[in-house]
Specification:
globular; Arp2/3 complex 21 kDa subunit ARPC3; 7 helices; mainly alpha; single chain
Length: 209
């Protein structure tokens, strides 16, 4: 019963946080519609994110600690590149939730119990983007976005979602290891995205001329 209330509390907190972000975005007039090109870019990135998740699904998760490190590098890099290519509020939600739903459609079917996990991961980035004006033009801002998503993703997964869905409980040292290795992977992925972003942005501008 405690697990149920913990999960329900996370959902209620999520709804309150979404409401706060929406109100803040409306007041700042931050929300803008996506163009067709931006949606096409997001769709491509969602496919790449799914490819990045596949190794974790087929066995990488069985490697203690290293799975979080290895998985986080490409996933974080792709998400942050997407935020550089489509610097608008809602992009993080579109990419993270889009990949999650896409993966469910290709996997065992739609499972709404996972949706709060996707939304919390996206919302953490959205809040940061509202704070910095939706532009990740500094390495510090990109590191903050990448590491915060990693911290929330692994904390929520091993402290709330796994115990609630599968009744799997992990030792504190194991949860700590996952979180730390995941955040290190997110940091590496952030630096990779930071290095690649200028060249990809330049190529994107040239292709649209």
């Amino acid at each position: 019963m405690m697990l149920l209330w913990l999960y329900v509390g996370s959902v209620l907190g999520l709804l309150a946080a979404i409401g706060g972000v929406v109100v803040a975005g409306v007041r700042r007039r931050a929300f803008q519609p996506f163009t067709t090109l931006e949606l096409a870019t997001a769709a491509l990135l969602i496919c790449l994110l799914h490819v990045a998740v596949v190794p974790w699904q087929i066995g990488l998760a069985k490697v203690p600690g290293l799975d979080a490190l290895v998985f986080s590098i490409p996933y974080t890099a792709i998400v942050l590149l997407g935020l550089r290519l489509v610097p608008k509020p809602g992009t993080a939600t579109l990419l993270i939730c889009g990949q999650g739903l896409f993966g469910q459609l290709l996997g065992r079917g739609i499972n709404p119990a996972w949706w709060p996990y996707y939304l919390w991961c996206a919302l953490a980035v959205e809040i940061l983007l509202l704070a910095v004006g939706s532009h990740l033009r500094t390495l510090a801002a990109m590191l903050a976005a990448g590491v915060i998503r990693g911290l929330l993703a692994y904390s929520y997964m091993y402290l709330i979602l796994a115990p609630f869905l599968w009744q799997q409980f992990y030792a504190p040292w194991y949860v700590g290891l996952k979180i730390v290795m995941g955040m290190i992977g997110c940091g590496i992925g952030t630096v990779l995205a930071w290095r690649l972003a200028p060249a990809i942005e330049k190529a994107t501008r040239q292709s649209s001329l």
